[in-house]
Predict the 3D structure of the following.
Amino acid sequence: NAGVTQTPKFRVLKTGQSMTLLCAQDMNHEYMYWYRQDPGMGLRLIHYSVGEGTTAKGEVPDGYNVSRLKKQNFLLGLESAAPSQTSVYFCASSYPLGLAEEETQYFGPGTRLLVL
Amino acid sequence: AQTVTQSQPEMSVQEAETVTLSCTYDTSESDYYLFWYKQPPSRQMILVIRQEAYKQQNATENRFSVNFQKAAKSFSLKISDSQLGDAAMYFCAYRSTGNQFYFGTGTSLTVIP
């Protein structure tokens, strides 16, 4: 039982390059989330998904796209990276409220992205 | 949208002493969940404690307890008998009935030996 895993752990991009961050969870959670963490700003929600094939925008969605083709995977894409996207990215997953007794999120270890 | 405010960017405590971290939130919902997460230098987010809004009793997990004041929309974390391993960034979080989570900006806790 690996929980939530993220790939890669660290990446350096040049401005304008594209990349995809992969999140995988083996807890059969319906909900998955992508956050970015910047100094002094806590965690901000980028996009989330309430089930396979669904996605929704969070607080800071611009410049990112996501896909949830399989229940266990949630992909975050940067089509044209910008220095403002330098951050630490966290994936998380959870059960829906009312479906299970656990109502918290489980987090991956984070991906540190540097855009030059 | 809900907002979560942590007004203490940094706190320090002597080892074995008690410290309280503050959190306030703004919501119009009556049913929700509140959490405290710990983030050590490893960056892993670790759940410390959770509280259901419909429960009046304050949650407790070993040395960690909360003071939940629903009317005041306040959710503080008390760490008793502080240990060196408690040094970390602490985030307060709110889960809405819409299943989104909202986080505060964090409080960096230093434990002084």
About this structure: The mean pLDDT of chain B is 93. Chain B is about 0% helix and 50% strand. Chain B touches chain A through 24 residues (CB under 8 Å).
